[in-house]
Design goal:
Layout lengths: L1 H12 L9 H7 L2 H4 L13 E4 L2 E4 L16 H10 L14 H4 L4 H12 L19 H11 L8 H4 L2 H13 L3 H4 L42 H10 L10 H10 L5 H13 L7
Antiparallel strand pairs: 1-2
Helix pairs in contact: 2-6, 4-6, 9-13, 11-13
The protein binds heme C (2 copies).
The site of one heme C (HEC) has 22 residues, from helix 3 and helix 4.
Length: 279
C-alpha cells in the first residue's frame, strides 16, 4: 500500500510521458542506435548486417550526412518512413526496419526523433545493398504492406483507462518494439497476435527468444515486479545470471537508459498482459 502511494506521488511529481518530446530519450527508448551502427563503425552510419530467415539486410546510414545519410530529408518524409514504411521516392521498406511497431508512435514523438537525429554528427558512408534472394524484390513490400500487414490492435480499454499501463504499453510496443523479437511470426513475416510476446523459436540471428508473458511455467510469471524492473535496468536475471545475445543490446542501449518510472510502467504493463504457455 505504501508502495502504491509512493508510486502515485512519484507519478504526480513527474507526469507520465513528461519526457515525450525529448528526442534523445525517445531515441534510446526506441533502440535506433544498435541497428544502425555496425560493429566498430561510426554511430548511425549504418552497415550493420541483420541476419534473417529471408537473407541479410544491411542497415542504411541515418546520420545527417546529405549525400549518404538522411540530411536532405524533411520531417514529413522521416515520419512517412518511420511510421508508414515508405521512402521519399515512394518505394516501400522491408519490415526488417521495425515500422510495424513504430507506426504506433505519435507523430509528435516521431518529429522529436527527427529533430534529435539532426543534431548527431554527419557520417559519410555509402549504404550497402541487402543480400536477399531475387524473389524478395522491394516492389513486393508494397503488396506486403497492403495485403499482409494487419492493422495494429487497438489499445485495450483496461489499458487505456490506466495511465501507468498505457505508458507501459507505449514503451513496450511503439518504442521498445519488444514484440519484433518476442512474438513469433507467421510464414509471411507478420507477428502472430494471438501469441503476443509468447516467445519466438526463430528470432533474429537464429536466436531462440523467450516467452515474456506472465505465464508461470514458460513465461516470467514467477518473477516479481522488482525482478523485472531490475532486469530492465541491469540485465540481471532473478537467478543471478545476465541476459545474453541481442537482449544485451536492448538493455544497454534502451531500457537501462529509461527513467525508473518508465521501467515501472513497462513492468506493470508486461505483468498485466495475457499469460500464454509455450514458446
Ligand atoms: C531491428 C533493426 C532496426 C531498428 C531497431 C531500427 N531500424 Fe531503421 N532501418 C532498419 C533497416 C533494415 C532499414 C532498411 C529497410 C529497407 O531497406 O527497406 C532501416 C531504414 C531506416 C530508415 C530509412 C533510411 C533510408 O535511407 O531510406 C530510417 C530513416 C530509419 N531506419 C530510422 C530509424 C530510426 C529513427 C530508428 C529508431 C526509432 C530505427 N530506424 C530503428 C533497421 C532498423
Ligand atoms: C532484438 C531482439 C530483442 C528485442 C527487441 C527484445 N528482446 Fe528481450 N530477449 C531477447 C533474447 C534473444 C533474449 C534471451 C537472452 C538470453 O538468452 O540470455 C531476451 C530475454 C528477455 C527477458 C528474459 C526472459 C527470461 O525468461 O530469461 C526479458 C524479461 C525480456 N527479454 C524483455 C524484453 C523487453 C521488455 C523488450 C522490449 C523493451 C525486449 N525484451 C526486447 C531478444 C530481444
Amino acid at each position: 500500500m505504501r508502495g502504491c502511494l509512493a508510486l502515485a506521488l512519484a507519478l504526480l511529481a513527474t507526469p507520465v510521458g513528461a519526457r515525450a518530446t525529448d528526442g534523445e530519450y525517445l531515441f534510446h527508448a526506441a533502440g535506433c542506435l544498435a541497428c544502425h551502427t555496425r560493429e566498430g563503425g561510426q554511430p548511425l552510419a549504418g552497415g550493420r548486417p541483420l541476419e534473417t530467415p529471408y537473407g541479410v539486410f544491411y542497415t542504411p546510414n541515418i546520420s545527417p550526412d546529405p549525400a549518404t545519410g538522411i540530411g536532405n530529408w524533411s520531417r514529413a518524409q522521416f515520419i512517412q518512413a518511420l511510421k508508414h514504411g515508405t521512402a521519399p521516392d515512394g518505394s516501400a521498406y522491408y519490415p526488417a526496419f521495425p515500422y510495424p511497431s513504430y507506426r504506433l508512435m505519435t507523430d509528435q514523438d516521431a518529429a522529436s526523433l527527427f529533430d534529435y537525429l539532426r543534431t548527431t554528427p554527419a557520417q559519410h558512408q555509402a549504404n550497402r545493398e541487402h543480400d536477399l534472394p531475387w524473389w524478395l524484390a522491394r516492389w513486393m513490400m508494397r503488396l506486403w504492406q497492403w495485403w499482409v500487414l494487419d492493422e495494429p490492435p487497438p489499445e485495450p480499454a483496461a489499458v487505456r483507462a490506466d495511465p501507468l499501463l498505457s505508458r507501459g504499453r507505449y514503451l513496450v510496443d511503439a518504442l521498445g518494439h519488444c514484440g519484433e523479437c518476442h512474438t513469433p511470426r507467421n510464414w509471411l513475416g507478420v507477428s502472430i497476435r494471438t501469441r503476443y510476446l509468447a516467445g519466438n523459436a526463430a528470432g533474429p540471428d537464429g536466436d531462440k527468444v523467450p516467452n515474456i508473458t506472465p505465464d508461470r511455467g514458460s513465461g516470467i510469471g514467477k518473477w516479481d515486479a522488482d525482478d523485472l524492473e531490475y532486469f530492465l535496468e541491469s540485465g540481471q536475471l532473478p537467478n543471478g545470471d545476465y541476459a545474453g545475445s541481442l537482449m544485451t543490446e536492448v538493455i544497454d542501449n534502451a531500457t537501462s537508459k529509461l527513467t525508473a518510472d518508465d521501467r515501472r510502467a513497462m513492468t506493470a504493463y508486461l505483468r498485466s498482459i495475457r499469460a500464454l504457455p509455450g514458446g
